[in-house]
Amino acid sequence: MELDDHAEELASDLGVDKQEVSSDLEDLLQYSVPIDEAKQSIRRKHGSGWGGGGQPESVDIAAVSTDHDNVTVTATVLTVGTRSIQYQGEEAVIREGELADESDRISYTAWQDFGFETGDELKIGNAGVREWEGAPELNLGESTSVAMADESITTDANTTLGGDRHLSALEPGDRGRNIEVQVLEAESTVIDGRDGETEIVEGVLGDESGRLPFTDWDPRSDIEADASLRVEDVYIREFRGVPSVNLTEFTQVSTLTDPVAAKSGAPRVSIADAIESGGRFDIEVVGTILDIRDGSGLIERCPECGRAIQNGQCREHGGVDGTDDLRVKAILDDGTDTVTAILDHDLTTEIYGGGLDAAREAARDAMDKEVVSQEIAQSLVGGSYRIRGKLSVDDYGANLDVTEFQPADDDPADRAQTVLDQLEQPAADGGVPPDATRGGESR
User: Does any domain span residue 436?
Assistant: First the structure.
């Protein structure tokens, strides 16, 4: 059905001007709103949010699906986050977080401030439903009613009220989270943002559970190396395959009296668990190198973007004069799965026992660049190594960008038992700091 046909159908159903409906549809579709959701939004605008004149169905959260246009739910507010976004060409402030009842939990976006807070028990009527991050999400808008629930609401025993979390428990899509961290790295930079050149602060945060990268979109003086901070109302998005903490103008930052002791080492995990997580910023794995992949040894990179090139061709910039570099792409196996461990120039230099000049000379003598990767393979393949780095997972597989590379110094039998223990260990629950009640409901 063409846009004009959708507009004509809506205008006829609602008894409003077709040109107005068509204009509204074009605006929504311009921002990639699905056609069915756009039509439902226009119905709500004109007072026909659920299309049949009756109240929308009242359902448990577990029963909410994207087959619903609108629903009524009774739930407890677990978290409330605030963020500004660009919507239909204008800046809009939204509230977002999670709701829960006895059956399940669900994320929500409120397009206006309904005044509710963490812990409130609400009856929410005529909430729209859309798909977000592959799951249903409630949309609370002009046609939504929000009132205090008549009865107390029971939630699942494993449900955590409030946004306090350890870094290791954060996942892309989390909103309204609170963390207590040490700033390990912080650097100011200027990017080309949506409003032109924008100063941001990027770096790494740490706590007792691990480390994650962060971006402060509203730079503040508290964010400096070695500071121990409580940071309230952050959202988590995926950046380069791992969770990233994002601070906005609504994020509240306060200095902690007691320093946070960031974990110095990375958590050791099995490769299978690391891949299952979808991406980890800082982990340690121990395994055996089975092979060295093509694209190792003496390679060439594009001088524009730094990508590895083949036959003088860059995927982004076409034909270029490449610059020499050293790299290793090793297949590592720990008995649970495999991952490609990628070693940069410095680590490859240490393993090879010489830098670019030595590699170029060896390639000239043999009249073959492959001699460099062959020498590296002879020294690595079959050996057991302890490797620390950042894991990313995509459609092409799992890659571990290595930051530390050392021969394994533990006993193979002990290592095998550790892997078995990890596979048998039940999922850890929570990820909530021991003092999670402190400040968890502050505003």
Answer: no
Q: Are residues 277 and 402 in the same domain?
A: yes
Cβ atoms 314, 307 nearer than 8 A: yes
d(CA 197, CA 418): 49
Task: Show the domain range for 361.
Answer: 271-409
Number of structural domains the chain divides into: 4
CA dist 285 and 333 (Å) reads 9
DSSP string, 194-248: TTEEEEEEEEEEEETTEEEEEEESS--TT--TT-EEEEEEEEEEEETTEEEEEE-
Contact of 164 with 178, CB cutoff 8 Å: yes
Q: How many Cβ atoms from other residues are within 10 Å of residue 36's Cβ?
A: 12
Decide the pairing of beta strands 297-301 and 308-309: antiparallel
In this prediction the pTM is 0.71
Q: Are 9 and 67 part of one and the same domain?
A: no
pLDDT in tens, 306-354: 999 988 899 889 999 999 999 999 999 999 999 999 999 999 999 999 9
Instruction: List phi, psi (to 5°) of 285.
Output: -130, 155
Cα end-to-end span (Å), the chain: 47
CATH of the domain at 81: 2.40.50.140
CA distance 301 to 298: 10
Specify whether 13 is located in the same domain as 32: yes
